[in-house]
Write a structure and sequence with these properties.
Helices cover about 65% and strands about 5% of the residues. It contains 14 helices and 3 strands. It has a 3-stranded antiparallel β-sheet with strand order 1-2-3, covered by helices on one side. The relative contact order is 0.07.
């Protein structure tokens, strides 16, 4: 009995492997470059990005985090160790909330735009300038045009119109340059000292200022650089900008809200220093230090929000919006023919 498999193998003809056939099979694949094929490939990539926009977004986000990891760690360290920038943790969370709050403006499809490459070039230039001149602020602020460029490059103008407010709000999480920080701290420190001294004198306490030290009876309160109110100024600017973005008010009201952040910050710092001096005289240094170092930091946020609410209430009473005039309904008038009227014929009644 013969195995069918062996029979099949014996009856099969062995075809010799010709060189010509190998050449023909190799030449069946066209390795030449065709521009039309390249365009079809790019179009397929763009169509896949439109249908699955999360894949390139996740990849680009990972690349940005990897490239800016040292800068982000330095910014987070500034938030943790410098009380003036402790509000930085609040900024990215609020930016994400802005994206969610404006979700109706998010486009359904992504239309990549090559103008985003120009913003990427701006970001690379800023980061290169920061590395060349040893300026950490330029390195950190280059993140904003980088994010804008990535959004425009992947999603187009509709995607940038949806996200530009959230990207712009991230400027409040970046620490100020060293020179600007110290240039603002000393004038604010002096203004807080003089204003608190005048307020205590108005309340009837014998007070005088010696430099940035306030003397109230036997107590001496030093308004150091950390108590200048710069942290409150940055925090209140962020709060005022967030309130201006979320409220549905006219543009003039929003400008006034943002501009009022500086006087609100100075007033809150003066209230803090005045309350501390008052407690030094009345209750002793223990309670004054408790209020100044612990409770005052938590109470300044509700105080600022209360001031902003009062400001909105006053603006609502002072600046009255004029309603738009109601338009009269449009009536269509059909012109009558100018020719002579014809009398209707009377029907003849048969006799």
């Amino acid at each position: 009995m013969v195995c069918p498999l062996r029979t099949t193998l014996q009856t099969r003809k062995k075809e010799p492997l010709a060189v010509g056939s190998l050449v023909r099979r190799r030449t069946d694949c066209d390795w030449s470059f065709h521009p039309q094929t390249m365009r079809h490939s790019l179009r397929a990539i763009l169509d896949s990005m439109r249908s699955r926009p999360l894949l390139p977004l996740i990849g680009v986000t990972g690349a940005i985090v990897w490239a800016y990891w040292p800068t982000l760690c330095e910014i987070a360290g500034k938030w943790s160790h410098d009380p003036q920038y402790s509000h930085g943790y609040f900024v990215p969370a609020f930016a994400v909330y802005l994206l969610w709050q404006r979700r109706k403006l998010a486009p359904a499809t992504c239309t990549p735009n090559w103008w985003g490459a120009a913003l990427l070039l701006v970001a690379v230039s800023l980061r290169g300038g920061g590395a060349l001149f040893y300026n950490d602020w330029l390195d950190a602020v280059s993140l904003l045009p980088l994010l804008s460029g990535v959004v425009l490059l992947l999603g187009g103008w509709p995607m940038l119109r949806w996200s530009w407010l959230a990207i712009g709000f991230l400027i409040f999480m970046i620490p100020l340059p060293f020179r600007l920080e110290h240039g603002l701290a000393h004038p604010l420190q002096r203004v807080a000292t003089l204003t608190a001294t005048y307020t205590l004198q108005t309340l009837g306490f014998p007070t005088f200022a010696e430099g940035n030290v306030i003397h109230v009876r036997q107590a001496s309160i030093g308004v150091v650089e950390a108590c200048s109110g710069l942290g409150m100024l940055l925090l209140f600017f962020a709060l005022a900008t967030g309130v201006a973005i979320l409220t549905r008010r006219p543009f003039l009201d929003k400008v006034l809200i943002v501009a009022s952040a500086a006087p609100v910050a100075v007033l809150a710092n003066v209230i803090r220093i005045t309350t501390t001096a008052f407690l030094h005289v009345i209750a002793g240094s223990r309670w004054a230090d408790l209020v100044f170092h612990d409770l005052a930091g938590y109470l300044m946020m509700p105080l600022a929000l209360g001031m902003l609410w009062v400001e909105l209430w006053l603006l609502r009473r002072l600046l009255i919006e004029r309603p738009l005039p109601s338009l009269a309904p449009i009536r269509l008038v059909i012109p009558q023919s100018s020719g002579p009227r014809r009398r209707p014929r009377r029907a003849r009644v048969p006799r």
